Amino acid sequence: MPQIKRRRDTEAFSLSFLDCICCGFGAIILVFILTVAERRSVARINVDDLDERVRRMETQVATTRNEVERVERLLAAAQAELPALQQKTTDTQLKLTDRQRQLLAMLEQTGKLREALATLLEQKKSLPTVDQSPIPIPEVDRRQYLTGVKLEGECVLFIVRTSGSMLGETVEEASAMLEENETRKREAPKWQRALRSLEWMIASLDEKTRFQVLLFNEDASLILPDRGDEWFSINDRQTLKQVVGRLREIVPGGSANLERAFFRVRTLSRLPDAIVLITDGLPTASDSFLSEGATNDEQRIRFFREAVRGLPERIPVSTILMPMSGDPAAPALFWELANRTRGALVSPAKTWPEA
Known about the structure:
- The chain folds into 2 domains: 17-100; 141-286 and 299-346, von Willebrand factor, type A domain (Rossmann fold), CATH 3.40.50.410.
- Helix content is 53%, strand content 9%.
- It is built from 8 helices and 7 strands.
- It has helices spanning 15-126, 171-178, 182-186, 189-203, 237-249, 258-266, 297-309, 330-341; strands at residues 155-161, 210-216, 220-222, 232-233, 274-279, 317-321, 345-346.
- A hairpin with a 3-residue loop joins strand 2 (210-216) and strand 3.
């Protein structure tokens, strides 16, 4: 009987199955290993970032703590000073109260003063009015400017040059002004200074001193012809107004004949005790020496010496020499005249007599 071969038993877990299982398990282990390593790297990065943020926060906390401590110190100092400030405030309020009381007292006193002033003004209205002097009284201290100028004696004669040269400080300026109308000539700065100088000196006279004004250009005449050679008092306000009014009407022009002016002095019924001459240079005309056209330096010197020869003796002559270019011999000759007659020579600044 043939032998029957037995079939091999089928195994559930063969070599191929085990290989698959092992491979799968290995893959799982590999994935696990890779995943854990990546997580550790990410965790390390997050930890470093957190550490940096913690350090920054700690720095901020330290800074904030220091600031808080500083503020606490300031607060403590302020609290320590608070009582003193409160006391000072109280003192200030007390002082303010005193000032308010003083202010009220001053206001009350001011009201009384206003009432008193109103009463005085009412009383002033009832007083008789006094006419103001037509010539302003000069300051006493400024009289010293005229040191040496003889304004003393019973009678003082003012001789004022009214020629065309009194319109300007140069020949060209004076010639240009001669072409202007009469109003412009009267308003010429140099002529106005001469008038103010005359008025100022008249106002400087002593109350007991009398005066007269002699004007000269080609001719010579007294300021008020209808009053003759009468000597005026500075207390006569009406006469002063007439003199000032006449001076304001004068229009400078023509030449200057000093010889004729000095001769007119000799004809006065009462000779002056002092003469004040207001001029700007040597004469440009003479009765003793005839000339035509413009005169030169030599002729003007000759005219001056001839005029001085006719001047009465023993009368001090003081000269107020206004500025004029082109007449170089004038200061020396007028100084010679002042020295010989015991008078004075003054060359005033442009601001005199205002300053």
